[in-house]
Design a protein that fits this description.
The complex is a heterodimer of chains A (about 110) and B (about 120). Helices cover about 0% and strands about 55% of the residues of chain A. Chain A has about 110 residues and is mainly β. Chain B has about 120 residues and is mainly β. In chain B, the strands form 2 sheets. In chain B, strands 2, 4, 5, 6, 9, 10 and 11 form a 7-stranded mixed sheet that branches. Chain B has a 4-stranded antiparallel sheet with strand order 1-3-8-7, with no helix packed on it. In chain B, strand 7 and strand 8 form a beta hairpin. Chain B is globular and about 35 Å long. Classes of the chains: A mainly beta (about 110), B mainly beta (about 120).
Chain lengths: ~110, ~120
Amino acid sequence: GENVEQHPSTLSVQEGDSAVIKCTYSDSASNYFPWYKQELGKRPQLIIDIRSNVGEKKDQRIAVTLNKTAKHFSLHITETQPEDSAVYFCAAGDGGTALIFGKGTTLSVSS
Amino acid sequence: DTAVSQTPKYLVTQMGNDKSIKCEQNLGHDTMYWYKQDSKKFLKIMFSYNNKELIINETVPNRFSPKSPDKAHLNLHINSLELGDSAVYFCASSQDVATGYLQETQYFGPGTRLLVL
């Protein structure tokens, strides 16, 4: 079955810096890669996703890149703000089963 | 934005009891899911269900069973609760997942925090 590895497990940055979180997946059939943000005590919420037919997607300060050959995808947050502090999860899906999540990255943005 | 709702929000119970968690979605989605988030924040799929198929994660004990009275509801029933069942349980939903098609976005409920004493 699919296995998703996520790094780093914790990430601390200064406000205004960029943050990068990386994930690798094992199943070449996976074709959907969402990123979720989970604030303390809240539900995971989708912030951006990418499908296997594109290599990059951007939404304001957030971007995701996908390298299908290497089976890895990354989340890039630019100009980080304290409200970006949360746990971020990557996930992979193949269109036929539920999502397989990475173990999460705790991002701390200090002002 | 309570498109996916769960009750109760908190559940404290004794070992050995049987309990249920309810989930409802008003998005018109065909597929619903249950995830378990443990103390290390790891999100793990337990079940996915639509009106055609129930897919069970093989690691889920058979004390856990999903029950769907209709397309908008997927409840989770847990028998003989154990200490290790303490976790946050999230319900989620998405449009129907058809094999071979690109996967649809999943929307999560607010979670149910279960504590087994």
